[in-house]
Amino acid sequence: MASKLQKRKSSSGQKTSKRGKNRPTLTVGEEEEPTNMESLGHPEIYPVVLTTKTQEIFNCRIDEDITDEQPYKLIKKEDILADFQNRAAVSDFYPVKKVIQEYPGDEILLVYDKDFKYGLNFYLVGTEEGKENYLNAPEIPEEQEEYKEHIPEEICIYKAPISKPWVSLGSEKEIEEESVKESTKKITYMISRKRHQFGAPIKFSDQNASSVKDAYIECTAYPDKNFTLRQLEKDIGMQVVPEVKDISTQTRCVEIALQQNEIMNTFIDDWKCLAEEEGTFGDKTDTHLKEYQSFTDLHNLTEKMITCVSWHPVIYGLIAVSVAVRLSFEDRVHFSGKLLLQPSLILFWSFSDPIHPQLMLESPDDIFCFKFCPSDPNIIAGGCINGQIVMWDITAHADRIENIKTGGSRSKKVTLKPMFLLEPDSNKEAMYIRHCAVSSIENGHKHVITDIHWLPDTFEINRMGTVFENRSGICCQLVTCSADCTICFWDIRPQKALTPQPTEKKKDESIEIPFDVPSTFLHLDLAWKPLSKIRLSKGETSLDHCPTKISLSEDHLQYKAQDKMLAQSKAAKVGDMNPYQNLEGGLANHLKPREDFCTKFFVGTEEGEVIYTDWKMERDSETGRLMTKKPVSLYTVHDGAVHTVQRSPFYKDIILTIGGWNVAIWKEGVMTGPLLQTSCAPKRYTSGHWSLTRPGVFYIGREDGYIDIWDLLEKTHEPALSQNICITMITCIKPWTFSAKQQFIAVADYYGTLHILEIPWTLSHPSANEVLSMNYYFEREVKHLEYVDQRKKIREQEKKEMQLEMEKKKAKTYQKSKEQLEAELKMDYESYLELERSILVNLGLIKVSEKVSYMEMM
C-alpha cells in the first residue's frame, strides 16, 4: 500500500510541475479526465493540490483558516468558476474543472488531507450526498474506538514545571470545608470515691448459682432495630500520619566496614590484576579510525575552511566549529567589499541532526580561534582576523541545544509529504545569535588572533602580572596571542575608572540595546582594553618574536566526570542567577599575592622557535616603564610556523610542539633541549593533539589529508600508523571522550567538512602501567640529555687542552745556526740523490754492479 501511495504522489507531482507549460496549449477535447478515488471505494473524492497563493485567494490557509478541529471549507461554485476565467489553466482547480461545472449545488466541500491519505494535500467532494455524509458523519462504532486505543500516541516531551505565583480560585474554601474539625465541646466526667473505701479486706468464695435467686441472667436473642436504620451519606475528610517508632542499632561493625573500604578495595579480583582483561569492548586487532559521521553546510560553508573546532564541555554529541574564507591576505584586501556581505559564523552541529546547524554565532569578522568558558559553557570567547575579541552569551538558548535529542523524535507522518509540497521547517532553521561584546579596535591586537585561553577560576593577575587568588569562583580573565608580536591579558569585569562627564552620560543613555542581544557584557562593547600587554623582544635588535600558540601551566584539555557534573550544576545555577550578569571589578589590589605560583609559560612563534618566558612585568631602571622580562630559554627546532603547543593531560610538565615538518616533546625545567625531536616528515604538518586516554599517543594532521598516529611505546622514530582521511589539508584535530567504551576524534579539513571518527580500542585503552612506562621513558631521555651535555663539556675541555699543547709546541721552536742549516740541506740533498739512483736502477739505465757514486761521476 505504501508503494502505491508513493507512486501516486510522484505522478501527481509531475502533473503539477508541468501544468504551467502544457495546459495552455491543450484544446477542450484534449483535457484529461479528473482522477477520483474509485479504486479506494470513494468515487466522490477528487484529490487536488492547492498552493499557498490559491489558499490565500479562497481563504483556506493551513493552520489559520483550516485547523485540526475544522479541517474543511465550503467554497462557492461561482468563485471557482471565476478563478477559471481569471487564471485559466494556471488555476489549481483546473484538473477537476469538469467535476466543478457539473456539480449540482452552490457550495463545494473542500477538505484538508493532513495525513496525505489520498496522495495530495486537499480533496474535493464531488456529490451532494458525499458532502452531507461528511458534514453529518455517524457515530463511530465501539469496535473502531477500541482499535483507535491501540494506535500509539505521539511521544510527549516532559518539561519541568515552572513555579508561578498562586492565584486563588476558591479551592481553599472546599479544602476548609472537608477538613476535620471539632464542632462540639467535649464532655468531661469526673468520678471519685472516698478514701476510706480503698484497701478494704476482700474474701471470695464459691456459690451455687441455682440455689440463689437472680444469681444469673439469661441473654436471649432478639431483633436489633439498629440494622433497619439507614444512615445518610456525608463527606468526611481524614488525615493519616505514618506510625512513629523508636529503633536502635549497633553501628560498630558498620564503622569498621567503612574504614576497610576507605583503606583498600575489598572487591578487587587479584587474579584478573595479574594480566590484562580480554573480555573488553571492541576488537584489539583493529587499529584504524572509523568514520562515524560528517558535517557540512552548502549554504554557509561555500568556499570556506574550518579554522577551529571545540566540543561542548557537558552536552553529548554537540560540537562547534568556526569558519573563514579561503583567501590570502592580498585577495582579502581585493575582495574586502564583497566579504562584508558574507556573515562570519560559528556553527553548532549535533549528532542527532547532521544536516542543519543548531545555532549560528555571528561575529564582525572571521573567527580563527574560540574557547568555551570552563566555569560556564554558555559563555564563549573568540578571536577575529582583524584582532578583536568577541564574546557570546547563549544562556537564553541553553534549553534549545539541551533538548536537541528529544526534538528529533517526531511523528513520521511528515515524511509522507511530496517533495514539492515540503515547506522550510521553522524548527529546523538554525538560530542566528549576535555577539554581546567586542573589544576596542584601537587598543587591542592589530593582526589576526592565533590563540586564546581562559585563565582558571583559581587565580587572577593584575597589570604587573602578579598572581592573586580568585575569590569569585568563575573564570574572569583571558589570554590571547596575535601575529602583531603581542600577548595580551584581558579582564571581562568592569574596571574602576573615573566618573564620565555629563556629555558622555548622555551619549551612553541614547544607545539602545537590541532585544535579542543579552546585556551580560554590555560594559565591554567597543571599550574593552587589555589588562596587560607583553612583547617578546629578540634582544639586541628592535624586532620582536611573532607568537602563534601559547601553553599555560594549567590547560583545560579534558573535563573529568566530576568536572562535568560541576559545570552542569553551575549551568543550572546560571539559569536562576547568572554570575556574569553582576560582575564586579577584581580584588587583586586588596589580596595577598601568591609567591609559589609558576608564571612561566611556553610560546611557539611563526619562525619555528619555542620560547619559555615569564609573563611578569618589570620596571626599567632608567625610564620607569613596564617592560617584559627576557625569555628564560629559546630554541629553534622547527622549520616552519608552530601551530601546536600543548601540555600532556597526564603530565603537567610535558609539552608537545608541532610545526613545519617535525615534532618535538619538551619537559618543563629541562633547559638542554627537547626530549624527542623527530626527523622531517614527507609532508608538512598542519595540526596535532594529545590522546586523552593514552599518555604515549598523539595525533598529527598533514597537508595531504593524512593523519599520523604516534605511539611512543611502540615506535619513537616514525609514526605507528598513517591513515588517509580526506583529499585536502587537515586544519584542526580535537579528540573527545564520551564514555569508557566510546571515544571520538573530530577532524576538520580545508574544504569546510567536519569528519567525526571513532577511535579503536587499541588507541583508546591504555595498557597496564602505561603511565609509569612513559614516565620512565621521559626520565631516561632527561638522563640522556644530561649525559650529552656532560660529554659536550668534556669535548670542549679536551679541545682546549689540545689547543694549549699546540701553542706550547710552537713556543718551543728556536733559531738554528748557519752550520746546522747547511748540514740539514746536505742531508736532504744526499737523500735526493739516493732516490734518483734507485729510480735509474729500476729503469735499467744504471747497472747494479756499478758502485761509483754520483759525486765521483761529477
UniProtKB/TrEMBL annotation:
InterPro entries: Dynein_IC, WD40/YVTN_repeat-like_dom_sf, WD40_repeat_dom_sf, WD40_rpt. Residues 1-41 are annotated as: Disordered. Its main location: cytoplasm. Signal peptide: none annotated. Keywords: Coiled coil, Cytoplasm, Repeat, WD repeat. It is found in: Cytoplasm. One of its GO terms (cellular component) is cytoplasm. SMART domains: WD40 (SM00320). Residues 787-824 form a coiled coil. It comes from the Eukaryota. Residues 1-22 have a biased composition (Basic residues). Interacts with ACTR2; this interaction reduces binding of the Arp2/3 complex to the VCA domain of nucleation promoting factors. Part of the multisubunit axonemal dynein complex formed at least of two heavy chains and a number of intermediate and light chains. Found in a associated with the catalytic heavy chain DNAH2, the intermediate chain DNAI4, and the light chain DYNLT1. Acts as a negative regulator of cell migration, invasion, and metastasis downstream of p53/TP53, through inhibition of Arp2/3 complex-mediated actin polymerization. Via its association with the multisubunit axonemal dynein complex, is potentially involved in the regulation of cilia function. May play a role in osteogenesis of dental tissue-derived mesenchymal stem cells. This is Dynein axonemal intermediate chain 3. The lineage of its organism: Eukaryota, Metazoa, Chordata, Craniata, Vertebrata. The gene is DNAI3.
